[in-house]
Write a structure and sequence with these properties.
Oligomer: single chain
Number of strands: 5
Distance between the termini: 90 Å
Structural class: mainly alpha
Helix content: over 70%
Number of helices: 24
Largest sheet: 3 strands, antiparallel
Strand order of the largest sheet: 3-4-5
Length: 671
């Protein structure tokens, strides 16, 4: 069985399952069962297709369609296999999670939710594997529309507003991508990506295509300054959909940038400034994303801003990869792209886990406001443990997966700094500093998020009454938590796979990303072993625990009121999200003013779009108003005048006939 067969089976099952869920939508339990079972089956097929695409030979399939200019072409290579694997894994846990979580959406229509979610997954798979510009754009638009309907599923004012902003930004990006693709298709005379790959574009045309694609896909990826839709749309969607959007959909933006710059323009020379551009946007996105996350009290908005941050980290690696290609340094290119692809996978896993954890908190408390939480670790131990693992992973704490991909990103930046000229050294150093600042602020942010949400004492009745979520929701989180551990501790076995994907895209030789139990950067001789780190950390914890037991008195601890600077301790005194981030907000005030300015601009953009639509509707009716309506009015008036001669007296009608005969007789005489 080939990757193409499993892929087509996955898409077909998703489509059939979505339609059936809609048809049986009157029964909530039936709609949920059909949607989730079909989704799980499709995801399993997708996992198989992705694995076969990564480890097998590239496969190109072309199916004839009624359109002579657009065969249904599918390409399965290691990069598309990675994205299919990521989306299928997230979809699998999202569907399992939905077996219980969808009960929260009974009044909003579980059948519709299952329909749009299945089609959303199928459209993402189509975008990844399609090898024709026309069908790529069709699936891309379908992906945007289905995700839009998932965002507004609750029909609240905030969700509708966020969904509309998302739709506007998605279509703005779509327009630029379409122009980029049509430029290539117009030059080559074909919509087939294979024909585009074989055509060598001039540096001007190649640069124009790349910039258009970079901005267009950047809107979908949510990089700064096109990120304003993420904190509006992601929190509004169901939490398992948020996991799919943040963990999977925005990665298609990164996929598109790499596909255009490295694959479709493979016969053209990669320009050095492309990589610098990507790296600088990545640095800005990583820092600003985490800075804005620190000020949030809404747990899902906080996670949405961290998606901006992690897209920035991915772009740092991708930018280094493009720089390595431009400099003719295949080792740098491989390490850069490998770092980007590894973090793409890791972010999908730990951000999916965190969104599911946030969904569990919302399910148990009914609120996303961290100020109203506290003490949830006591009543939701499984959710608390899974969220802790995700928090440690996103903060790049060893030996979890976030540490590994950020370590490779650092290595790629250091290697680039040693290999490039003065300008490249400065750019690479800037990227490394931005990554260091991002890492420090990410730790601060998730100390706040986890501590305020799960530790301390409950600060509201909903937190005191919270209970652990049902089994399917815990199972979905547990799978991703285990993946965070495996992708970190098992990095010596995962890194060669990421290197294989990078070398397949760059056609560069293998550099040796892992030797034995160690991760390696052969360019500068830097090594680290995550299995050894895991053993040492476990040993350290065991040692401290043993010392505590040995030095303890064995007596029962005494619970005392906390010291409150001489005042009586009150429930309002514990550290909360607002007070935790207040100092950072004060220091980074200018950056928050930038956010306010950018948010205002996005509002103006939406207002401009609405004004354009209104103007277009006025222009559309102008012809009817001044041409069609005028003629119609004249015809009606003439009809009314003609009706006046219809008096109903047959003698008058005989008179009309005689008059007509006299008129025509006179006319014949004159002629």
């Amino acid at each position: 069985m080939s990757a193409s067969v499993l892929f087509l089976a996955s898409v077909a099952v998703s489509c059939v399952g979505g339609v059936l869920a809609l048809l049986v939508g009157r029964s909530v339990s039936a709609a949920k069962a059909v949607a989730c079972i079909a989704g799980v089956a499709a995801s399993i097929c997708g996992l198989g297709a992705g694995a076969m695409a990564i480890f097998g030979e590239p496969e190109l399939v072309s199916i004839a369609t009624p359109f002579s200019f657009a065969n249904f072409s599918l390409l399965f290579n290691p990069l598309s296999g990675l994205l299919v694997l990521v989306i299928s894994l997230l979809a699998l846990v999202a569907w399992v999670y939905g077996l219980s979580y969808f009960d929260e959406y009974k009044k909003h229509g579980v059948g519709a939710l299952g329909f749009f979610m299945n089609l959303f997954v199928a459209s993402m798979m189509g975008v990844i594997c399609t090898d024709n510009a026309f069908w790529f754009l069709v699936f891309f638009e379908l992906m945007s529309l289905t995700s839009y309907f998932l965002v507004i599923i609750e029909q609240k004012e905030t969700s509708i507003k966020g969904g509309f902003l998302y739709l506007v930004m998605a279509h703005a990006g779509f327009l630029l991508i379409m122009i980029s693709f049509f430029t290539m298709a117009g030059t080559t005379g074909s919509f087939e990506f294979q024909s585009i790959r074989e055509h060598g574009f001039s540096p001007v045309i190649a640069s124009l295509v790349f910039v258009l694609a970079f901005i267009g896909f950047g809107c979908k990826a949510g990089m700064v300054p096109f990120h304003s839709w993420l904190p509006q749309a992601h929190p509004a969607a169901p939490s398992n959909v948020s996991a799919l959007m943040s963990g999977g959909m925005i990665k298609i933006g990164v996929f598109g940038i790499v596909k255009v710059g490295l694959d479709l323009l493979s016969s053209s020379e990669v320009q050095l400034w492309w990589g610098v551009l990507v790296l600088l946007f990545g640095a800005a996105s990583s820092v600003l994303g985490v800075v804005y996350a620190l000020a949030e009290h809404d747990i899902k908005k906080l996670l949405a801003y961290h998606s901006v941050e992690n897209i920035g980290i991915i772009l740092l690696g991708v930018g280094v990869g493009f720089i390595g290609m431009a400099l003719g340094q295949p080792a740098i290119a491989v390490i850069g792209f490998m770092a980007g692809f590894y973090h793409l996978l890791n972010h999908a896993v730990f951000k999916g886990l965190l969104f599911l954890g946030a969904g569990s908190v919302l399910y148990a408390t009914g609120t996303r406001n961290m100020e109203k939480m506290g003490g949830l670790a006591r009543v939701m131990p499984v959710t608390a443990m899974c969220f802790l693992i995700g928090s440690l992973a996103i903060s790049a704490i060893p030996p979890l997966n976030g540490f590994v991909s950020e370590w490779y990103t650092y290595q790629s930046l250091f290697t680039t700094a040693f290999a490039g000229d003065a300008v490249i050294k400065v750019v690479a150093a800037f990227g490394a500093v931005a990554l260091a600042i991002t890492g420090a602020l990410a730790v601060t942010c998730f100390v706040k998020a986890y501590g305020v949400t799960f530790l301390s004492a409950p600060r509201s009745d909903v937190a005191r009454q919270a209970k652990e979520v049902p089994g399917p929701m815990k199972a979905g989180m547990a799978v991703l938590a285990a993946a965070c551990v495996f992708l970190g501790v098992g990095a010596p076995w995962v890194a060669p796979v990421m290197e294989h994907i990078a070398t397949a895209m760059t056609t560069a030789p293998t550099v040796g990303a892992a030797v034995g139990m160690e991760l390696v950067n052969p360019a500068i001789g830097s090594t680290v072993s995550t299995p050894l780190l895991a053993v040492l950390m476990i040993a350290l914890v065991a040692l401290l625990w043993g010392l505590r037991a040995a030095l303890g008195t064995g007596g029962t601890g005494v619970v005392r009121d906390p010291w409150a600077c001489g005042y009586k301790a009150e429930a309002e005194m514990p550290v909360i999200a607002t007070s935790f981030a207040s100092q950072v907000e004060m220091v980074l005030g200018p950056l928050y003013r930038i956010r306010s300015f950018m948010s205002a601009q996005s509002g103006k953009f939406v207002a401009l779009f609405q004004g354009t639509v209104k103007g277009a509707s006025v222009a559309e009716t102008a012809g009817d108003k001044y041409l069609v309506d005028t003629v119609a009015t004249l015809v009606v008036w003439l009809g009314q005048q003609v009706r006046k001669i219809e008096c109903g007296d047959f003698r008058v009608y005989i008179l009309y006939i005689v008059a007509a005969l006299v008129f025509f007789l006179c006319l014949s005489v004159l002629i």
